[in-house]
Amino acid sequence: MAGIDSSISIEMDSYNTEEVEKLHRLMNARALRKKRIRKTVLVCVNILFALFMLFPLLYSVSVSIMPGDELFTMDLNILPSNPTFENYVRAFTQVPLVRFILNSFLVAGCITIGQIITCSLAAFAFSFLEFKGKNFLFMLVMATMMVPGEAVIISNYLTVSSMGILDTYIVLILPSLTSAMGIFLFRQFYMTFPISLYESAKLDGCGNLRFIVKILIPLTKSAIGAMAVYTFINAWNMYMWPLLVTGSEEMRTVQIGISMLNSVDAQSITLMMAGVVAIIIPSMVIFIVGQKQLISGMFSGAVKG
């Protein structure tokens, strides 16, 4: 009887084990199915939200390849029935748009390089050097962030006018060669490094400039990338200052020169859209390429340690 009872209990145990495994497989399948459904729903919602956010840009592209007679109708023409690239050809031939783009590239590139150099040097001084009034000077630099650019634009114009550099590349680049935002960004990043790093380099005979070039710059590539993307996009989109200090077509940047496509003609709207799409592509490419660096650089100095 004991042998029979033990065999029955073994069979019951194996039966229960099989049932438990079957139940686990069923639960795992249900959980996997729910996870897939949830992921599919989230992807669909994100796609719809992305299309909603990108609709103005997509509609601008649609208008840029739309003939003028299709735009001013009673019908809601979202997509052109007869797409054409004539608007782009006219936009590049009616005004020197290529010259405007090259001017903006030159100005934005010089401003970006200048801000990276000046802001990194100033941030190094505020982070590693000890001098009298350092905290007070840093507070003054941060206080300039609260002063709007419109409040000093007239005084800046009078200064550069007295210097005789109006309508030149210098006047477009010089006032923007440094920024409080860049100094703050680099300083916060440098504060994550221990002061012993600088002291050890000094003991080994490393000068300040060599310490910056050989040690700090390789360790701050994410901050430099974030600063480069942020500065380039801001410089590319400058409007008020180039409008005030330039007067000839040779010195116009894209944000000023694109307005030359506007006229009383109905065709000017499609031309304007073609020009806007053409000049927005470089800044979008810069942002997409440097998006990872921009995000990591902005948050890398937020946590110390």
UniProtKB/TrEMBL annotation:
Describe the family membership recorded for this protein in Swiss-Prot or TrEMBL. Answer: Belongs to the binding-protein-dependent transport system permease family.
The ABC transmembrane type-1 domain covers 101-290
* PROSITE patterns for the chain: ABC_TM1
The UniProt keyword set, sorted, is: Cell membrane, Membrane, Transmembrane, Transmembrane helix, Transport
GO CC aspect terms:
plasma membrane
InterPro entries reported for this sequence: MetI-like, MetI-like_sf
**Bilayer-crossing regions:** 40-59, 105-129, 136-157, 169-190, 211-233, 269-290
Gene3D superfamilies noted in UniProt: MetI-like (1.10.3720.10)
Q: Where mainly located?
A: membrane
SUPFAM superfamilies for the chain:
MetI-like (SSF161098)
Its membrane topology: Multi-pass membrane protein
Sorted alphabetically, the Gene Ontology BP terms of this entry are: transmembrane transport
**Lineage: superkingdom:** Bacteria
Provide the protein name.
Answer: Carbohydrate ABC transporter permease
